[in-house]
Amino acid sequence: MPDIDALKPVLTALLLPPLPFLLIVLIGARLLAWRRWLGRTLLWLGIALVWLSCCQGAGRWLQAVALPPPDPLDEAQIAALKPAKAEPSPTTAILVLGGGQVPRAPEFGAADLSPDSLERLRFGVHLARATGLPIAFSGGTGWSQRRDVGATEAEIARRVAERDFLKPIQWIEPDSRDTVENAVFSIRLLKGAGIRRIVLVTHAWHMPRALRAFERIGGGSIDLVAAPMGYFVPADRALLDWLPSSRGFEQVRLVLRERLALRAER
């Protein structure tokens, strides 16, 4: 019997837009010959849902209703993270959660971070420079990738941080495959290094699920500070929010995927 976790990428593709909405369109078209009114209703419903699933406005609305993220850190909150001068070694660390990798980037001739992962690392480096706190990175090999080929995401992040941001990563956690494992392995690693507070860096749409996982695994033994980034923002012109776009399609899928994951992890 196949491992259900290994089927996550396939199940996600089947459950998320556009496939369910296209199925409604096909059912509606099939019913036109027998139940014209019902067939037309389903046909137009499916078309409308396909359209909305490609709109940034729909993505932001879904996030506000189903997955509201915490507010971003302001300057005062960031300043308050700086360790005390009398502190012999930091008890707070910035933890960046991986967001995926590119197994082989032809332009570099090696594996690279995905755009999501690179954005998270960039913000983590920004916080590290503003606070003087050390950085940790959590990410192994995702469920859709082979675990016996190439570098893990954390190892790639360490190389990218040193090469592109001139900032070393102090700890890497290279074994996790999802958010729950991020929490399990990272908390174990950082608590062993004397860390008692984690500044958690991930995208705003991912932060609710990440916080829930870290709070459950940590069990109150470690303090958490949410440092979300990559918020969905309105288009320059309101009309563009409701016209189909690749960004809108991505945002809707991200929110729906997170909701599915939250339900599955209960």
Task: Write a brief structural summary.
The chain has 266 residues and is an alpha/beta fold. The protein has helices at 8-15, 19-31, 36-52, 56-66, 75-79, 115-131, 153-164, 179-192, 207-218, 246-264, and strands spanning 92-97, 101-105, 110-113, 135-138, 171-173, 197-203, 223-229. It folds into 2 domains: 4-67 and 242-264, no CATH class; 75-229, Rossmann fold (3-Layer(aba) Sandwich), CATH 3.40.50.620.
Textual characterization of the structure:
The chain has ten helices and seven strands. It is elongated and about 80 Å long. Strand 6, helix 9 (207-218) and strand 7 (223-229) form a beta-alpha-beta unit. The strands form two sheets. It has a five-stranded parallel sheet with strand order 5-4-1-6-7, sandwiched between helices. The mean pLDDT is 92. It has two domains: 4-67 and 242-264, no CATH class; 75-229, 3-Layer(aba) Sandwich (Rossmann fold). It is α/β, with parallel strands linked by helices. 35% of the residues are buried. It has helices at 8-15, 19-31, 36-52, 56-66, 75-79, 115-131, 153-164, 179-192, 207-218, 246-264, and strands spanning 92-97, 101-105, 110-113, 135-138, 171-173, 197-203, 223-229.
Classified in CATH, the superfamily of the largest domain is HUPs
Choose one word for the global shape: elongated
CATH architecture name of the largest domain: 3-Layer(aba) Sandwich
Low-confidence stretches: none
> Roughly what fraction of the amino acids lie in strands?
5-15%
Please name the CATH topology of the largest domain: Rossmann fold
> Order of strands in the sheet with the most strands?
5-4-1-6-7
Mean pLDDT: 92
The rounded Rg comes to 21 Å
Terminus-to-terminus distance: 23 Å
CATH classification class of the largest domain: Alpha Beta
Count of alpha and pi helical runs? 10
